[in-house]
Design brief:
The strands form 6 sheets. The protein has a 4-stranded mixed sheet with strand order 21-22-1-23. With about 450 residues, it is α+β, with helices and mostly antiparallel strands. The two termini are about 15 Å apart. α3 runs parallel beside α5, α7 packs parallel to α11 and α9 runs parallel beside α11. The chain is globular, with a radius of gyration of 21 Å. α11 links the parallel β21 and β22. The chain has 2 domains: about 220 residues, Alpha-beta prism (UDP-n-acetylglucosamine1-carboxyvinyl-transferase, Chain); about 210 residues, Enolpyruvate transferase domain (UDP-n-acetylglucosamine1-carboxyvinyl-transferase, Chain). The chain is about 30% helix and about 25% strand. The chain binds shikimate-3-phosphate.
Length: about 450
């Protein structure tokens, strides 16, 4: 059987040193989307050079946008204005990227032409009705498979109208999709979220000069108010990538890492709050606002962790970090309980089941529930686990190797390329004993 890229982690070690980690994936996607819709040339520094964000870049090229990709995170987007996109000659393949698919559905539903969006086998299993249903209510003509999954076929030339929408699930992708559709709709689109989710779309729209009203848990946008104006964007490091090293340092005695220039938007910092509640030693320094986004250096030193009941309001603020938070829980004294996190079951993999299966192989007492997990801290054994093609599962189990009693082998790690291609190199430079084999 072909196990793809395999990570082999020799047990033990600690993480020491300072590094810049991969750029923020959410902000990189949005920089391409809004840069394409703007008038003028948007310069991006620190664009994430990874498969997911390159899927968005290629998608907008196929929609007629000239994008100069200079490498090393430098991208110039020659915006075509809000009405300048052209039909793609072929279906738009978005690979593994849920953010690209959900955000682009909203944008393309409002265009004068038809589009088809496809993805890989994981993306083709993820629920899309959460966007197609409200878009249809706005007047869009949009089809999925019978089970509500991609391919998504969008029939253009429909005049959308504003919608008052109260989201059932806390999802920044759904909110952003509707804001993009709302940009083109007649009247006001108003979206209320059940809990705060990442607000990069709102911040970026304002940065590009498009007015929004934000009031409590509701954001409103009036369609066709003005054009978007190109700007320069400096993408900070991704706290979701930093999270692996934050947990790695928190669980291995003697660790001391400084993660430089990381985005610390308050809608993303649940990982800091959760680890701090568990007793981690985390300090922020050099805090500044860059391009409307808070950025800081994050310093983490080893300190013993204790199990906690994770407050449910922190779940959307740490939604991508649970695979590695489960590893922290496995290393903590006592029991950690996560509830209110059913969304984890529809990420790039079923992150509750896949993490529970892997932790059990490593002899950790991890009990999955419908909407979370109960984990009792203990010694971690070695063993062979499978990431199920999910980048964050692969990286989380790699970090577990710091506390394992024997080698951990992780199958199917190819998709680490979707968000953090330099993960193994940076992890090695900080002290993880990781080998990556094809
Ligand atoms: C994202 C939103 C989140 C997150 C994803 C990126 C975004 O998804 O899990 O990795 O950039 O808007 P949901 O909106 O499905 O929670």
């Amino acid at each position: 059987m072909n196990n793809g890229v395999v990570f082999q982690i020799s047990p033990g070690g600690k993480l020491c040193g300072e590094t810049r980690i991969a750029s923020d994936k959410s902000i990189s996607h949005r920089s391409i989307i809004f840069g394409s819709l703007a008038q003028g040339v948007t310069h991006v520094d620190g664009f994430l050079e990874a498969e997911d964000t390159l899927s968005t870049l290629k998608a907008f090229r196929s929609l007629g946008v000239k994008i100069d990709h200079h490498g090393q995170g430098r991208v110039d987007i020659h915006g075509v204005g809000m009405n300048g996109l052209r039909p793609s000659q072929q279906p738009i393949d978005l690979g593994n990227s849920g953010t690209s698919m959900r955000l682009m559905s909203g944008l393309l539903a409002a265009q004068a032409f038809d589009s088809v969006l496809t993805g890989d086998s994981s993306l083709s299993k993820r629920p899309m009705q959460r966007v197609t249903k409200p878009l249809t209510e706005m007047g869009a003509s949009i089809e999925t498979t019978d089970t509500g999954t991609a391919p998504i076929t969008i029939h253009g030339n429909r005049q959308l109208h504003g919608l008052q929408y109260s989201m059932q699930i806390a999802s920044a992708q759904v909110k952003s999709c509707l804001l993009l559709a709302g940009l083109y709709a007649h009247g006001t689109t108003s979206i209320t979220e059940p809990a705060p989710t990442r607000d990069h779309t709102e911040r970026m729209l304002e940065g590009f000069g498009y007015p929004l009203q934000r009031q409590g848990s509701t954001v409103r946008i009036d369609g066709r108010q003005t054009s978007l104006k190109a700007l320069s964007i400096d993408v900070p490091g991704d706290i979701s990538s930093a999270a692996f090293f934050m947990v790695g340092a928190a669980i291995s005695p003697g660790s001391d890492v400084l993660l430089k220039h990381v985005g610390v938007n308050p809608t993303r910092t649940g990982i800091i709050d959760i680890l701090s509640l568990m007793g981690a030693d985390i300090q922020l320094s050099n805090q500044q606002i860059i391009g409307g986004e808070p950025v800081a250096d994050i310093h983490v030193r080893y300190a013993p962790l204790s199990g906690i009941n994770i407050p449910e309001q922190l779940v959307p603020l740490a939604i991508d970090e649970f695979p590695v938070i489960f590893v922290a829980a496995a290393c903590a004294e006592g029991e950690t309980l996560l509830t209110g996190a059913a969304e984890l079951r529809v990420k790039e993999s079923d992150r509750i089941q896949v993490m529970a299966d892997g932790l059990q192989i490593l002899n950790v007492n991890a009990q999955p529930t419908t909407d979370g997990m109960r984990i009792t801290g203990s010694e971690i054994n070695g063993g062979r686990v499978d990431s199920h093609g999910d980048h964050r599962i692969a990286m989380a189990f790699a970090i577990a190797g710091l506390k394992a009693s024997a080698e951990i082998v992780i199958n199917n790690c190819d998709n680490v390329q979707t968000s953090f291609p330099e993960f193994a190199d940076i992890a090695r430079s900080l002290g993880l004993n990781i080998a990556s084999k094809n």
